[in-house]
């Protein structure tokens, strides 16, 4: 009988705690400890070659990109742990350049993995808005000129473009 009574009291206590902690629908969860952001990256102290190796873009282009995307990357509500737009862009560029995992890039950028996931989403959306300013596709009428220029440069035939020195073979679809 005592065991059942103790179990009942324990269950009642747990139920009371759970009900106390439950929040009404639509109520925003408050963090007990706000997310921590530790500034680890400083672009101004890095050598230019290291900047290009890490982010695949030069310092000037990164700063221009940040300036253009800053309104998209600033949150509506200013918060002490808000991550500066430059750090957001640098962390996402590092992620895209390295092909690493969220957690690894987040640690290297000084933020938590969930925070980096939010930053990644925000920066990629901003990049999509400004994509046409940075990515230009060739028109069909430009192909002979581009092929000739690449052949003159390296004596390799049928080259229509280069991406960061990476060779990508384009194979046309089969004729039906």
List the helices and strands and how they pair.
Elements (H helix, E strand, L loop, with lengths): L1 H20 L26 H8 L3 H15 L11 H14 L3 H8 L3 H18 L12 H12 L22
Description of the structure:
The protein is an all-alpha fold and 176 residues long. Helix content is 54%, strand content 0%. It has helices at 2-21, 48-55, 59-73, 85-98, 102-109, 113-130, 143-154.
The H-and-E topology, N to C, reads as HHHHHHH
The major β-sheet equals: none
Helix content: 40-55%
Radius of gyration: 26 Å
Low-confidence stretches at least 5 residues in length (pLDDT < 50)? none
* Oligomeric organization of the protein chains: single chain
Distance N to C terminus: 83 Å
What percent of residues are in strands? under 5%
Structural class: mainly alpha
Helical stretch count? 7
| DSSP strand tally | 0
Report mean pLDDT, rounded to a whole number: 77
- Shape, principal axes of CA atoms: elongated
Which characteristics define this entry?
signal; mainly alpha; 176 residues
Short description, anyone?
Helices cover 54% and strands 0% of the residues. The chain is mainly alpha-helical and 176 residues long. Helix 5 (102-109) packs across helix 6.
């Amino acid at each position: 009988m005592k065991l059942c009574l103790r179990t009942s009291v324990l269950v009642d206590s747990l139920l009371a705690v759970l009900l106390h902690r439950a929040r009404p629908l639509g109520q925003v969860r408050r963090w007990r400890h706000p997310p921590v952001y530790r500034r680890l990256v400083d672009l101004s102290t890095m050598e230019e070659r290291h900047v290009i190796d890490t982010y695949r873009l030069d310092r000037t282009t990164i700063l221009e990109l940040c300036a253009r995307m800053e309104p998209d990357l600033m949150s509506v509500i200013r918060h002490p742990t808000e991550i500066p737009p430059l750090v957001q862009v640098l962390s996402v560029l590092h992620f895209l350049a390295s092909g690493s995992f969220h957690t690894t890039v987040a640690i290297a950028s000084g933020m938590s993995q969930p925070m980096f996931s939010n930053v990644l989403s925000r920066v990629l959306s901003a990049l999509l808005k400004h994509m046409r300013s940075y990515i230009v596709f060739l028109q069909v009428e430009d192909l002979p000129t581009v092929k000739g220029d690449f052949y003159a440069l390296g004596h390799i035939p049928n080259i229509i473009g280069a991406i960061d020195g990476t060779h990508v073979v384009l194979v046309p679809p089969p004729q039906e």
